[in-house]
Amino acid sequence: MSITVDRKKLSFLERTYIPQIIGGLYITFRNMFKKKVTLSYPDQRPTLPPGYRGAPTLVKDGDGREKCVSCQLCEFICPSKAIRVTPGEIAPDGKYSFIEKAPKAFEINMLRCIFCGMCQEVCPEKAIVLQNEFSLTGLSRAEMVRDKAALYAAGGTMPDKIKKWSRVKSNAELERGDH
Amino acid sequence: MYSNNLILFAAAGAEVSSVWDSVLNAILMILFSLIAIVVVMTFAGLSVVAERKVCAFMQGRYGPNRTAIPWVAAVPGVGGILRSFGLMQLVADALKFLLKEDPLPNHVNKPWYLAAPAIALTPVLTVACLIPCGVIYTDSGKIPMAVADVDLSLILALAIGSLGAYGAVIAGWASNSKYPYFGGVRASAQMISYELTMGICALTVAIWVAPITGKPFSLFSIADSQSGAMWLCITQPLTAFLFLVALFAETNRLPFDMAESETDLVSGFHTEYGSFKFGLFFVGEYGHVAVASALFATLFLGGWNPLPGLSWPADWGWISSVLCVLTFLVKVAAMIFFFIWVRWSVPRFRYDQVMRLGWQCLVPLALANFVFYIILRAAIA
């Protein structure tokens, strides 16, 4: 069954629009005294939500060991080809020599990076993390390519819950085949 | 006016010699005109800032509060206030208009294209000279504080003020481009329609004050008739309202933004203008708002009187005159705020709605109102 909805006839006052205009004026006037929604940006900083994807950084674990094992997965997954990892050896006499590889050089070109976070997702070591930094500026292109030192400086430390590289036995014991 | 200047000059303590009378008079005339122009320009500039600030506040923003002139901004206290109130933005805007490249399009009608901005601005500054912003009490009576106190200043103000439409029309035609052309056509149609209402409202006021004062068409007499008496916006609320609506249309302010109508005509009549020439249109528009506010304050808001039924006492001398001017400026500022307030509250009318409102509502209402007040006046008399 179809229902015909009656159109409400406008009253005389409504047809003059004057009450509506006065109502609008009242609203705009009230708005003048409300709290401003604008964030005065460089002076005030926004509160970033958890899980914010800012600039990718490299992090160290609780012992100060660099987590990256230079598997280069981030380099290969990076859709904008912003990452360049140069794998290197870990010195054989070090505590973590059994990890075998660490990046000799690690560069992220922040002019190419699109903050997609795929490097973070793909990283098996949770070594590359997108953190809260979102305002990146530089005066030259070279300045915008962040090298390893800059990436670690921006990243800081991020301890793991499971310490898979903290071995109880020494390398020598392992080589003897004691396990 | 001649004698007024001399009295002013004598009040300043100088000896008036008959030889130098005319020279002095001319110099004073030019000086007063310059002051009037400076005041209108200042008000126009300040209303640009006010517009940006008020609209920002109404939209929950801060508006311009960063622009700083290095040396001025460093002044403690004042510099910070100037900065946060956006007053230095004014200087930046003006400099931008002055320093931008000033291209002359190839397809325009050059003489008229160049003349249009000046034609748009000149009437505004001329009308400003007619408006009495206060009164000087002397032993011989009241002297209006206006550059040109003409007996028919109301008619003259309306006549010259409406010449401003030619700025838009000529700009629209000389630009030789379709959007400006539409803007110009709309501006002319709107001006003609709403001038009628304005004229009838002005006549209603003149009829009303005619028995009180000898010069019903003098702005000074109209304002003076309201000192110590009811203001005309109280005795004639409908006239005031109709006049106000017509003023909005005359100044091309929203909701009657036909000449510019940026939503459908790019930028209307000044689409082809840039840099300083656009700046002249811009200043002209805001000057028009300031002058319209002053006109409304003079006609309906009691001019320089602080409250209905109250006026600054004559025996206070020059203090009273200063208070008069301040009162008047406050009223003008309040009216400018009202213009801005309405602009950011009410959406724009369609062109046909503007025409319908003008011819089918405002003109008949204004005529009926006119007849009503004639009868009322006759009944009282």
Order of helices and strands of chain A: HHEHEEHEEHH
Tell me, briefly, the overall form of chain A. Answer: elongated
- End-to-end Cα distance of chain B: 32 Å
How many E-type strands of chain B? 2
H and E order of chain B: HHHHHHEEHHHHHHHH
Show unreliable segments of chain B. none
**Alpha-beta content class of chain B:** mainly alpha
Average pLDDT for all residues of chain A: 86
User: What's the architecture of the domain at 56-155 in chain A, going by CATH?
Assistant: 2-Layer Sandwich
Oligomer state of the chains in this structure: heterodimer
Count of helices of chain A?
A: 6
Shape of chain B: globular
Per CATH, what is the topology of the domain at 56-155 in chain A? Alpha-Beta Plaits
Strand order across the biggest sheet of chain B?
Answer: 1-2
Given as residue ranges, the uncertain stretches of chain A (5+ residues, pLDDT < 50) are none
**Helix content range of the residues of chain B, please?**
55-70%
How would you describe what is shown here?
The complex is a heterodimer of chains A (179) and B (381). Chain A has helices at 12-16, 18-31, 73-77, 118-122, 148-155, 171-176, and strands at 56-58, 83-89, 101-109, 128-130, 145-146. The relative contact order of chain A is 0.18. By secondary structure, chain A is α+β, with helices and mostly antiparallel strands. Chain A has six helices and five strands; from the N terminus they run H-H-E-H-E-E-H-E-E-H-H. Chain A has a domain at 56-155: Alpha-Beta Plaits, CATH 3.30.70.3270. Chain B is an all-alpha fold and 381 residues long. Chain B has one domain. Helices cover 66% and strands 2% of the residues of chain B. The mean pLDDT of chain B is 83. The chains are: A alpha+beta (179), B mainly alpha (381). Chains A and B meet through helix 2 of A and helix 2 of B.
